[in-house]
Amino acid sequence: MRDNRIRKLVIVGGGTAGWMAAAALRRHFQGGPLEITLVESSEIGTIGVGEATIPTIRGFYQQLGLTDIEVMQATQATCKLGIRFDGWVRPGQAFIHPFGLFGQDLRGTPFHHYWRKLAQAGEVTDIADYSLGASLARAGKFMAPQRNPSSPLGIFDWALHFDASLFAQLMRRVAQDNGVRRIDAKITKVNLDAETGHVASLDLDTGASLDGDLFIDCSGFRGLLIEEALQTGYESWSDTLLCDRAWAVQSEGQGEPPPYTDVTAQSAGWRWRIPLQHRYGNGYVFSSRHISEEDALAELKAAVPDPLLHEPRLIRFNPGRRKQAWNRNVIALGLSSGFLEPLESTSIALIETGIEKIKALFPDRDFAPELADEFNDWSKREMERVRDFIILHYWANKRGDTVFWRDCNAVTLPDTLQQKVDLWTRRGHFIRYRWEMFHPASWLAIYAGFELLPETIDPSLDGIDPQTLSAPLAEMRKAIAEVVASAPPHGVFLEQYCRPVAMAAQ
Ligand code: FAD
Prior knowledge:
The chain is of the alpha+beta class. The chain has helices spanning about 15-30, 55-65, 70-75, 110-120, 130-140, 165-175, 225-230, 295-305, 345-360, 370-395, 405-410, 415-425, 440-450, 470-485, 490-495, and strands at about 10, 35-40, 80, 80-85, 95-100, 160, 180-185, 185-190, 200-205, 210, 215, 235, 245-250, 260-265, 270-275, 280-285, 315, 320, 325, 330, 340. It folds into three domains: about 10-75 and about 160-235 and about 320-385, 3-Layer(bba) Sandwich (FAD/NAD(P)-binding domain); about 100-155 and about 385-490, no CATH class; about 245-315, no CATH class. About 35% of the residues lie in helices and about 20% in strands. Strands 5-4-14-15-16-13-17 form a seven-stranded mixed β-sheet. Strands 7-2-1-11-20-19 form a six-stranded mixed β-sheet. The radius of gyration is 24 Å and the shape is globular. It binds flavin-adenine dinucleotide (FAD).
């Protein structure tokens, strides 16, 4: 039988995407004949942002044999229970999107119908009081979730805020320890096979040439292989996602780090504040159609409460996706495959799912088109689902104070999102599409946070006297409040378990 297996895998780029792929794929193909080489240019550098994650990151590094504490110590990380949206509904109003559930379903009917029924009877309660994750976050506390909580009220999850360059270094160490070869050189030319149009080799500024069977393009926004060489094309979503710039800056870390990412509405976008153990990451994501770069910079500088560690850096982006994440023998991963915007910290999570797709659909040298088709369909849908979730945050705002926020209200929703919103508002029901990254509890957090509530209550509750709901729902709130009272402050948890340790030099 002809041995048609991929023997040489070349990863282009050594940012978060490149080193995550190198570490994970080396482990996946452990012991096999596949050679993995990563080429990066220390002269070009990485984007240097991407510090807030969602809980899937923990499963990712656990598969590599790393524990939460090891990763937190190596990356100056803090715990993230969710995102606090400040001023998004109206100035001065905030809510938390936690990684976790709200309340307890009763008699097979989702909790939110009971919560609404109680409110309609005059007892309005804060939905965050029914979420352990949101309540811990609000109180500035942290504890690891129980493995098998006795009730759904104990279910929540957590993620990390980490130093992006330290995380890439950690991934690099894991990859290199397991046999990934690293080349520090600038790629000066991408050579295509005249017959197949596949990438055949890369010319390096060292004078060497690097050939491969399969190339993973992790070269960042430019898409050195997928776009510059293969001209795959890009689908822009700037008509529905208005932000296209960010100023990013690190600041001194002062005070107790909160166990959540803070995202605060600004005049033409929003500002992030990500707590690490040794500093904060800050940035202003804005729409260049609504504010100049200079004015956005001034707004950011005025808003960051602590001393800046360097001059802010401008990053320009075009929200959207590469038309084919897999084209010929090139698979784009990370920013080269597209970028929406950082609001829900989905970019690194999309790198993780990209790696899972590569594992699941790993080709041989015949490159059967069905594999790329499946990969591309999956990637497209997954990104569209995330896009819809992010659009909802902007569209549902009730600020009305600047042209930017009014323009967000006026965006035409994609059909997939419009259907979701319609079914939610009419019937309190969640549509779940294939390849959704965000579960109903996350949609509930955003709908409720923006006061976008169902017009009707599930008819199974018609026979229930709302007064009888007061006591069981109060019990739920009490059970959560008791756990929060017994949990340690986030800073105490970090001090106890997560103080940094020096990494061995490479
Ligand atoms: P890069 O970091 O840009 O790496 C590109 C690599 O390619 C580098 O190593 C470079 O040297 C190499 N390269 C390029 N050209 C050449 C060449 N010619 N020769 C050799 N090497 C070359 N994601 C999150 O999940 N959470 C967040 O909070 C978050 N915040 C963000 C905020 C902003 C403003 C932006 C823009 C993005 C954010 N992201 C976030 C996304 C996140 O930063 C990226 O997904 C992640 O860093 C992966 O980047 P990358 O590895 O694809 O690209």
